[in-house]
Amino acid sequence: MKVSPHLPDAHKIPSTDQLDRLREQTPMYDAVIEEVDGRRIRVGDTWLTDFASCNYLGFDLDEEIITAGERAVRRWGTHPGWSRLLGNPRLYPQIEERLTELLGAPDTLVLPTITHIHMSVLPALVDGGAVFVEASAHKTIYDGGSYARGLGAQLYRWHADDPDELVRLLRSADAGRPRVVCLDGVNSMTGNIPDLPALAEICREWGALLYVDDAHGFGVIGERDGEAPTPYGSRGNAVVRHCGQSYDNVVLVGGFSKAYSALLAFVAVPTRVKEHLKLAAPPYLYSGPSPVHSLAAVLAGFDVNETRGEQLRFTLHRLTARVLAHIRSLGVHTPNRHQTPVIELPLSPGYDLAAVAKLLWRRGVYVTLAAYPLVPRGQVGFRIQLTSAHTDEHVDQLNSVLTELNGHGALRRALA
Ligand SMILES: Cc1ncc(COP(=O)(O)O)c(C=O)c1O
Asked: Which end of the chain is more exposed for a tag (fewer CB within 10 A), N or C?
C-alpha cells in the first residue's frame, strides 16, 4: 500500500487536549520520578515497582558499570566537546571495534540515538528510491521513511504477516533505484521476533536492503548454538545472529539505551557504506555526541556481557517465563510468542484503560500504558517489561494484580 501524505492512524499526533485528558485519567503519563531504589520508583509519595523500564540487563544499577563511568568522567570530563567528524575520544573506536566483533558484522558506526539513525542513515540509504515500512514498525522508523519521502522517495506500508504483499510492492517499485525494507527486530509492543530468514531471502531476491531496528533485542537475544540455556540464545548479539542470518543485504540498527542503559546507538554496515555515511548522515558532523559516562558504560557493558551476560539473561528469561506462565494460566491473551521480556496485554474490547491504570497504581505497579490515540482503539492496553534487576517478589506482586484485573474482566481472553 502506497502511503498517502496523511498519517496512518497509529502515527497521528495527539492534541494537547488529549494529553491533558490522559494526564487526568492517570498519573502514569508524563510522571515525575523523584527517587529510584533498584526497580522501585517513587512518584510523589507513592512507591511503585517499575515494569516500564527498558534496562533489560540491569546495567543501570550495576556497580561495575557505574564505577567505570565515573572513572571515565574524571579522565575525559563530562562531555566530549566535538561532533564525531571533528574529534572522537578514543572510546569511540574502541566501542566500534568491540561491537563489530560482538555482532559478527562487517563494520559498525555509532551515533547518539536510533532516532538520529532513522532520520539520517535511512534516507541516505534510500537515496530517492523506495522505502517499505512494516505496519507495526516503531514510529521513529516511520518518521525516517517520511523524511526520505520528503527527499523524493516513494513510501510504502506492508504487513509482516503477508510477505506476498511485500513482494507485490517490491515488484511495482523502480528496480533501478534503491529499495529499502524496514521493520522492528524484537517488536517494541508485541515482543515478537520477525521471520528474518524469509524476509532476508525476499530482499536478496529482489535486490533490496533489509533494514532492521532491534532496539529491544540487542543485549537480550543472540546467536543460537544449541548450548544456550534459554530461547534467547547467547551473547545478546541481536536478531540477525539469532536468526542465523548473514549481513549480506541486511542493515542492523540497534541501541544501547535499553539493555545497555547508555545513550548511544549503532548501525552495522560494510566499511565503504560507513565511510559514506560519515558525510551523508548529518548527525556525524552536525549533532552533539553521547555523554562520556554513556560511552564508558557501553565499554564496561561489553565486559559485563562477557563475564555475566548469560547469567543475567538466564534470570531475565526465568522471571519473564513466570509472568507468561501466569498469564497463560489465567486464559488471558498476550501477543508475546517468543518469551522476550516485552509483554503486551490488550484490554477486553471497550474496557476502560483509566480504571485499569487506577488499580495498577493502587497496587503499586508501574507499566507503559497504551492509550488511544497513541495506539489504535483495538490495541488499547498496557505493556509490561521485565529486567534482570527484578526479583521474584516483584513478579509475585505483578502476577497478583493481573489475577485481580482478570477477575474484573479487564484483560482480553486468549483464543481457545
Ligand atoms: C524499536 C525502537 N526503535 C527506536 C527507538 C528510539 O530509540 P532512541 O531513543 O535511541 O532514539 C525506540 C525507543 O523506544 C524503540 O523502541
From this structure: C
**Average of per-residue pLDDT values in the chain:** 95
Give the CATH number of the domain where residue 212 resides: 3.40.640.10
| pLDDT score at 10 | 56
Query: What average pLDDT does the segment 48-57 reach?
Result: 98
345 has which bridge partners?
A: 382
d(CA 209, CA 396): 44
**Helices and strands (H and E) in the chain: how many:** 13, 14
Model pLDDT for residues 337-362, shown as the tens digit of each residue: 999 999 999 999 999 999 999 999 99
What the block records as the C-alpha cell of 43 is 512518584
Contacts of 225 (CB under 8 A, 6+ apart): 233, 234
The DSSP element (H or E) to which 41 belongs, if any, is strand 40-43
Task: Report how far ligand 1's centroid is from the alpha carbon of 51 (Å).
Answer: 17
- 91 and 198 together in one domain: yes
Q: Is the pTM of this model over 0.90?
A: yes
Q: Which domain holds residue 225?
A: 64-304
Tell me if 252 sits within 8 A of 214, measured CB to CB.
yes
Q: At what angle do helices 196-205 and 163-172 cross, to 10 degrees?
A: 20
Whole-angstrom distance, CA of residue 297 vs CA of residue 264? 10
User: Looking at the structure, do residues 227 and 363 belong to the same domain, yes or no?
Assistant: no
The answer to whether 156 and 173 have CB atoms below 8 angstroms apart is: yes
Confidence class of residue 377 from pLDDT cuts 50, 70 and 90? confident
Q: Give the pLDDT confidence score for residue 5 in this predicted structure.
A: 47
Query: Cα separation of 284 and 357, whole Å?
Result: 41
Is there an atom of ligand 1 within 6 Å of 188 CB? yes
In this model, does residue 369 exceed pLDDT 80?
Answer: yes
Task: Report whether pLDDT(126) > 50.
Answer: yes
Mean pLDDT of 42-52: 97
Does residue 414 fall inside a structural domain? no
For residue 368, report the distance from its CA to the centre of ligand 1, in Å.
14
Q: What is the rounded distance in angstroms from the CA atom of residue 406 to the CA atom of residue 404? A: 5
